[in-house]
């Protein structure tokens, strides 16, 4: 299995360039000429390099941030067979070279087995959302845009061709290759509008990459070779150019020693991010994620918006792609819908997942890393040794012909910890805490639906805040009274309340009833 720290993503936007240059300054070459045979006129190297560099520098100093919707898609293949699908929608705040901030809206993932194994692109979405063209990073090959003020020291440039795209517009095709062919830098092509000096497209490629962002999950496996291509395009907006689409394609020769069977697997991956409907955003979901939480974990946390995906309400992806993706999702052996329905057990592939509430009980293992295994009476103040956190999520999902209110009660593993000894009373206490949160969620959703409020976002938000305030007071009383499950009288009281509301008898399930 591959653990992808990153999959290359290039998010760039460009603005008008002050440096003026005419086509007569360059030797115009045919597209059919071999790149290796191109000779550059004396003096053109520095001029072409600065032409590209100045375009991004001016864009960086003049860009006004703007918002848009964005669609992410990741697909993985082995031997031509698709084995993975990731789809997600975001609100994106664009900076000079891509998003400076993003907000996850909704998404899904699906996996199909290959030789009884699953491959996943763990953080490819995060790389596409975070990569910055002008910031050098040891995980990525270098490009002329992030090697300093004189990229001609590290790359060779030439004008490969020109293309007339309008009465007054000419597109320059500028190619570049690294002077050191050690796999640490991109070669590529940039297309620049000669009249407006906007950089419109960039193609980056690196074969046999030595500086790259991939790592195998298992120490027994290894990566033999990586080839990467990355294409990005930009369109003019009112306050500067912005990303239209970026797509990364990568081929990985992966040596697997699974079950003592050494074999090289050719892994093909594609990851793309497309911005659309500039100036508009999705309604924001009510949930908090720690900064380090990757997109894959967010996909696992939220309920599956089936009506949204079946209706395909957004213009992206196009209908034909949406149908193929839906078919793959329905046939997958693992997807976020099956995980949330608890039809698939959490395992080492999905460590520390967000856990949606269900009638199945949550257990903290006694061998949990970090568990202090201390008796309660050994410390006078143990409040710092444990913390429970369940989030009440809700969102308004726009389907083809209606608004759908979705809500869920989610145990947050990044904020929940218990570093004391574990016994049935403790596990009972934790599940009762979770149950109280679920009861509050149901009351919130019922109140909204009775009032027919999914369309009125401000009223839904008001009901949510009232629900949260009431729940916080209730949990405060619960925590103080039950003393982590040690106060039997209080546990019986709260158990009866939960039994009436949810028809769940926690004391009986955890064997805590008197004989």
List keywords for this structure.
515 residues, alpha+beta, 11-stranded antiparallel beta sheet, 10 helices, 18 strands, disordered N terminus
Unreliable segments of 5+ consecutive residues:
1-43, 366-379
Compute the separation of the termini in Å: 50 Å
The general outline is: elongated
Q: Please list the strands of the largest sheet in the order they lie side by side.
A: 5-6-7-8-10-11-12-2-3-4-13
Beta content: 25-35%
Radius of gyration (CA) equals 27 Å
Order of helices and strands: EHEEEHEEEEEEEEHHHEHEEEEEHHHH
Largest sheet: 11 strands, antiparallel
Number of strands: 18
Number of helices: 10
Helix content: 25-40%
Structural class computed from helices and strand pairing? alpha+beta
Average residue-wise pLDDT? 79
Give a verbal description of the structure.
With about 525 residues, the protein is an alpha+beta fold. About 25% of the residues lie in helices and about 30% in strands. It contains 10 helices and 18 strands. The chain has helices at about 45-60, 125-130, 295-300, 305-310, 320-330, 335-340, 425-450, 455-480, 490-500, 505-510, and strands at about 1-5, 65-80, 80-95, 100-110, 155-165, 170-180, 185-195, 200-205, 215, 220-235, 240-255, 265-275, 335, 355, 385, 390-400, 405-410, 415-420. The strands form 4 sheets. Strands 5-6-7-8-10-11-12-2-3-4-13 form an 11-stranded antiparallel sheet, with helices on both faces. The radius of gyration is 27 Å and the shape is elongated. It starts with a strand and ends in a 6-residue tail after the last helix.
């Amino acid at each position: 299995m591959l653990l992808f720290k990153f999959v290359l993503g290039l998010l760039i936007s460009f603005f008008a360039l002050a440096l003026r240059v005419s086509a007569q300054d360059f030797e115009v070459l045919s597209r059919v000429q071999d790149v290796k045979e191109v000779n550059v006129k004396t003096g053109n190297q520095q001029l072409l390099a600065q032409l590209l560099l100045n375009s991004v520098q001016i864009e960086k100093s003049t860009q006004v941030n703007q918002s848009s919707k964005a669609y992410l898609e990741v697909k993985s293949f082995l031997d031509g067979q698709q084995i993975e699908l990731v789809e997600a929608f975001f609100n994106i705040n664009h900076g000079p070279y891509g998003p400076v901030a993003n907000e996850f809206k909704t998404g899904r993932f699906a996996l199909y087995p290959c030789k009884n194994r699953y491959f996943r692109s763990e953080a490819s979405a995060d790389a596409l959302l975070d990569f910055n063209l002008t910031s050098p990073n040891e995980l990525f090959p270098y490009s002329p845009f992030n090697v300093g003020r004189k990229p001609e020291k590290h790359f060779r440039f030439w004008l490969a061709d020109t293309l007339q795209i309008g009465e007054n517009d000419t597109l320059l095709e500028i190619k570049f290759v690294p002077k050191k062919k050690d796999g640490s830098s991109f070669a590529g092509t940039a297309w620049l509008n000669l009249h407006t000096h906007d950089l419109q497209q960039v193609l980056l490629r690196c074969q046999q990459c030595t500086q790259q962002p991939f790592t195998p999950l298992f120490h027994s496996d290894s990566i033999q070779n990586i080839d990467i291509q990355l294409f990005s395009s930009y369109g003019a907006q009112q306050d500067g150019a912005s990303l239209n689409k970026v797509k990364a394609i990568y081929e990985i020769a992966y040596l697997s020693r699974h079950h003592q069977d050494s074999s090289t697997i050719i892994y093909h991956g594609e990851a793309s991010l497309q911005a659309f409907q500039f100036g508009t955003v999705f309604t924001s979901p009510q949930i908090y994620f720690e900064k380090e939480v990757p997109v894959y974990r967010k996909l696992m946390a939220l309920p599956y918006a089936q009506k949204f995906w079946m209706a395909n309400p957004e213009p992206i992806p196009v209908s034909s792609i949406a149908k193929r993706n839906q078919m793959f999702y329905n046939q997958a052996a693992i997807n976020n819908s099956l995980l949330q329905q608890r039809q698939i057990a959490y395992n080492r592939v999905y460590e520390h997942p967000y856990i949606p509430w269900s009638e199945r009980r949550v257990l903290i293992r006694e061998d949990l890393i970090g568990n202090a295994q201390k008796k309660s009476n050994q410390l006078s103040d143990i409040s710092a040794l444990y913390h429970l956190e369940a989030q009440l999520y809700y969102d308004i999902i726009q389907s083809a012909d209606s608004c759908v209110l979705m809500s869920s009660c989610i145990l947050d593993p990044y904020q929940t910890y218990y570093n004391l000894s574990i016994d049935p009373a403790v596990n009972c206490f934790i599940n009762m805490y979770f149950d109280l949160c679920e009861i509050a969620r149901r009351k919130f959703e019922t109140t909204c639906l009775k009032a027919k409020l999914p369309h009125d976002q401000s009223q839904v938000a008001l009901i949510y805040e009232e629900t949260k305030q009431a729940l916080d007071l209730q949990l405060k009383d619960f925590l103080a009274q039950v003393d982590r499950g040690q106060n039997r009288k209080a546990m019986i009281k709260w158990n009866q309340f939960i039994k009436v509301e949810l028809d769940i008898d926690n004391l009986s399930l955890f064997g805590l009833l008197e004989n």
